[in-house]
Inverse folding.
């Protein structure tokens, strides 16, 4: 594998054990004679390897993958009299540079954009409970009432839910539902339930802090065993 060799999924289709290649494209997986090992990634064509006597007796094997090239038909780039060469066509189009807050050197352009839930929480919980001045004491009734009514807590929970949903989308982006079903021996119809089960765990949100493909896969693999034991048995 010459390009993009990290994070390639390797699955033993017989034992359902799986792993992911490291930054050098190396991986280790347990097999026995006759097993089928599948190597798959978006950028390569899926390849199945049958563990023969020759392969089984080798301590190291080299897997050659074919790039997944999508051939497009001829494209007509009219009516703007384009050539298909980006360097020439940009000048022909006469596009104006995109104006952004960063290009204008405006302050605070490097700050992360807050979600709606985060803005609502700041609005509900802004300020101190009490403010002391030289001759007066003011009480922040807005902050206190939001706390007592549960409004602040509601916004805090909304932020946690947003983080969980973001993490779920990241998981689906990295691993398709078909991949999760085949790798963890879960019917594809139950994958949504499996993801919901993972999202209900207290440590699910910590995955977003790590954002490491290998750790995410290991977490899902561990939870899949629990899911099949506890949840699928109920069905």
């Amino acid at each position: 594998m010459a390009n993009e060799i990290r994070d390639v999924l390797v699955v033993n289709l017989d034992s359902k054990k799986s792993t992911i290649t490291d930054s050098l494209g190396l991986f280790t997986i347990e097999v026995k004679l006759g097993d089928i090992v599948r190597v798959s990634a978006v950028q390569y064509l899926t390849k199945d390897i049958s563990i023969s006597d020759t392969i089984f007796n080798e301590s190291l094997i080299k897997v050659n993958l074919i790039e997944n090239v999508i051939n497009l038909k001829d494209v007509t780039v009219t009516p703007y009299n384009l050539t298909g060469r980006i360097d020439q066509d940009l000048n022909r189009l006469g596009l104006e540079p995109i104006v952004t807050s960063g290009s204008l050197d405006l302050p605070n352009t490097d700050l992360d954009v807050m979600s709606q839930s985060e803005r609502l929480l700041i609005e509900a919980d802004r300020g101190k409970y009490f403010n002391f001045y030289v001759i007066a004491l003011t009480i922040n009734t807005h902050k206190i009432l939001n706390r007592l009514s549960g409004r602040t807590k509601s916004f805090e929970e909304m932020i946690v839910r947003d983080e969980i949903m973001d993490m779920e989308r990241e998981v689906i982006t990295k691993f398709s539902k078909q991949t999760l079903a085949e790798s963890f021996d879960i019917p594809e119809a139950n994958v949504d339930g499996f993801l919901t089960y993972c999202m209900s765990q207290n440590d699910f949100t910590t995955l977003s802090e790590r954002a490491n493909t290998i750790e995410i896969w290991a977490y899902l693999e561990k939870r899949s065993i629990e899911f099949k034991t506890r949840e699928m048995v109920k069905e």
Q: What stands out?
A: The first helix runs from residue 53 to 56. Strands lie at 9-12, 18-20, 36-41, 44-50, 130-132, 137-139. The mean pLDDT is 76. The two ends are 42 Å apart (CA to CA).
